[in-house]
Amino acid sequence: MLDRSTQPRRLLAVLVVGALTVSGCSGRDANDDSHDPLADELAKDTTAADNQTPADDTDTAANEVGTVDESKYTLGHLDELTRWAAEFTNGPGRAATGDPILFGYVHDAELSPQHLPAARAAIDYINEQLGGVDGRPLELVGCDPSVPRVMTEIDPETEDEVEVEISCEVELADNDELVVVVAQTSIGNAELYDALADKKPVLVASPSNVAELTTSTTSTYLAGTLTTGGMGIWALSLELKSAVALFTDNVVGRDGFTMLEPMFVAAGVELEPVWITSATSASRVESELESAGVRDADLIILGLDEPGCAAAAEGLAALGINGTASIVISASTCLRPGARAAFTEAHGETDIPANWHFATNGFNPFEPTVESGYATISAILDGPLQPDHVGDAGVEAAVVAMLSITRALNRVDGDFSFAAVNGSLRNPGAPVPTQAGDQQCGRSRAFMPVCAGRMGVIQYAGGAWVDVATGDAAIDLSQILFPPG
After folding, report:
1. Residue 475 belongs to some domain of the structure
2. What is the 3-state secondary structure (H, E, C) of 73-113?
């Protein structure tokens, strides 16, 4: 077996330099010591003051998504599933009434059309079943950065009404009714985070690139793109001599590969990159992989968007890599329904080849349990989206974000000031649905928004989804989160 203790050293140094470089462009100093007293009070034992706490150093078992603080309501009237959700959100467990509490939701309808319906379904469930925020309903105010938005203003010179185009960030920053903003775009939005800094607390639903891991103005509860580094940690625990990395040539793919390459170099394992686009055909993927020597590789790592997953499924099937020799580990995008349909078409009776493994945030979405939070997600999404939601990490992240901001708002007892809500977001006080392990926001100085510390691996074998590294056995990301020096 390879010596895992020395694998990540050079990777981590590279990541820190990259992280600080990106952070320096975000509009705020990543080492800014400014803070609010309430955040300090809420932090207490949940913030790793020395930023050296390993991901498994926690009082909460990694395979349980329980609540650390007790609910302030009596919930004995609820069934098990609804009671679990109400305990997590700290809501009263009844229909919400009264004046709504508004929050912003930034999404990309063209690239991810299912995210907004998932978020709305979650808010409906929260308002109808969980009691919203202290009995008041939540109201989602959506904003799509790709859609022009126009408002009417009075021209100061002519006093005529004129239409002015405004951006998402300006609209949300100027809306005093919004108490928090959830951001879920495909490639991040640094301008948004800068515009909302110190004005609106921001929860990133799931980080998709290094910029979202390094901004000093947000919080994020799911591992997201850090799972790419986790795939490398898991892969290098195997006896490998060579690997091929097939990645989409965009900011997400480039950032993911940046996590992997130094790790493999340090371990002495050859890693050959192959870059494709969303429009690359399956035959071209087959040709590129053949040229990269994929038949002789011990491991194939996939960091692709959904169209790339479909092309890879066909290309690898054409090469005969269908469940025997090489091991495949893929980012969770290849678990999306469209990608899985491509597997079925490419491999005939075999839904997904047995040697394919997939990254998750730490649990198995195909085995929904109350404890992991997936049972709640299924209850929320089965009606409007079934069967298309299972395995779609983006859709799941939208629901988790809605539940999480509800929890944060319920914990401030009606004080919706920036300091109170941001302090609550930064100190969730419990693990969150679908994410294994504890939540310690700011545990890593290199990745200040990150609160998670683990990721998972699952596999389809023998007609069922098998846990490879989930729950208590989920991959510890400390090697990435705590670079030396």
Report:
1. no
2. CCCCCCCHHHHHHHHHHCCCCCCCCCCCEEEEEEECCCCCC
Tokens of 297: 């590789």
**Per-residue model confidence as pLDDT tens digits over 323-356:** 555 788 999 999 887 788 887 777 665 567 778 8
152 and 220 in a single domain? The answer is yes
- At 188 the pLDDT is 65
Domain shared by 176 and 259, yes or no: no
Q: How far is CA 71 from the centre of its chain?
A: 26
In a domain, 3, yes or no: no
Measured CA to CA in angstroms, residue 419 lies from 72, 192, 198, 220 at distances of 22, 19, 9, 17
Long-range contacts of 13-19 (CB under 8 A, 24+ apart): 13/262, 13/483, 13/484, 13/485, 14/258, 14/262, 15/210, 15/258, 15/259, 15/262, 15/446, 15/480, 15/483, 16/446, 16/483, 16/485, 18/210, 18/258, 19/210, 19/213, 19/214, 19/446, 19/447
pLDDT in tens, 372-412: 999 999 989 987 665 567 888 999 999 999 999 999 999 99
Residue 403's identity, in one-letter code, is L
Whether residue 327 contacts residue 301, with contact meaning beta carbons closer than 8 Å, is answered with no
